[in-house]
Amino acid sequence: MPFLFLDLPDENGVFNYRLEIVDKHPVLTNFLGKRFLVDTGSPISMTVNSEPFLLCGESFESSKLNIIDTVQDLSGLDVDGLIGLDVLSKFNVLVSYKDGFIKLSREAFHIPGQMVNMHVMPLKSAVTFEANLNGQPVRCILDTGAASANYVVSAKLVEGLESAGECEDFYPGVGRFRTTLYDMNLGVGEMNVPIKCGMLPSSLSALSRLISLMGQAVIGFDLLSQVNAVAINFRDKTMIIG
Description:
Elements: E1 15-22, E2 25-29, E3 35-38, E4 46-47, E5 53-55, E6 58-60, H1 68-75, E7 81-83, H2 85-88, E8 92-96, E9 101-105, E10 114-120, E11 127-133, E12 136-142, E13 150-152, E14 163-171, E15 175-188, E16 191-199, H3 205-212, E17 217-219, H4 221-224, E18 230-233, E19 238-241
Parallel strand pairs: 3-7, 12-17, 13-16
Antiparallel strand pairs: 1-2, 1-9, 2-3, 4-7, 5-6, 8-9, 8-18, 10-11, 10-19, 11-12, 11-15, 13-17, 14-15, 15-16, 18-19
């Protein structure tokens, strides 16, 4: 039997789901108690036993490249699946860590905040937006799976900065690793958000090169936890950070 979401939209055609932040990870829980990690850094969706699932009245297949067991083991999260960009990009998304919800709709979301141009990279590999780090312009990858730290791919962006501690993180296929953190300022329009950034270790040099083809920084929990909400309008390629 597939996992079922309570697929009843409100009067505006918006599908509303509760979002719980578990160890800095956004976890969507359906009315049957099934839990799904929402990961904009993943191009694929997957479920335990590769079962299909319903979202917003549509059925979606789990990817055959299924590493949900690895994600569970490394993150310590008790989840039944992961919803990635292949599914999320079919809708417009409004997410609020502060208020604990995620909304999906065919219509664009309009909220007060800074509107920025957004890009969806080929093969739904990433969603990016323009910002600056410590005054330097960068293209950022918005990754809700980046819970422990944000990352920059160029050492020049942290050159001359003092260490602000360390953290442990993980990446499937590599396992756990530690990284040095640096205090930085993320600027989006007139909005400024303090964040901590690290550098990926040499064991992830191939991943760093891949990320550098799409952007210069990976931004996740630090931004999403400090703003009221983020609207990701895939259809008109805009993002509003409010």
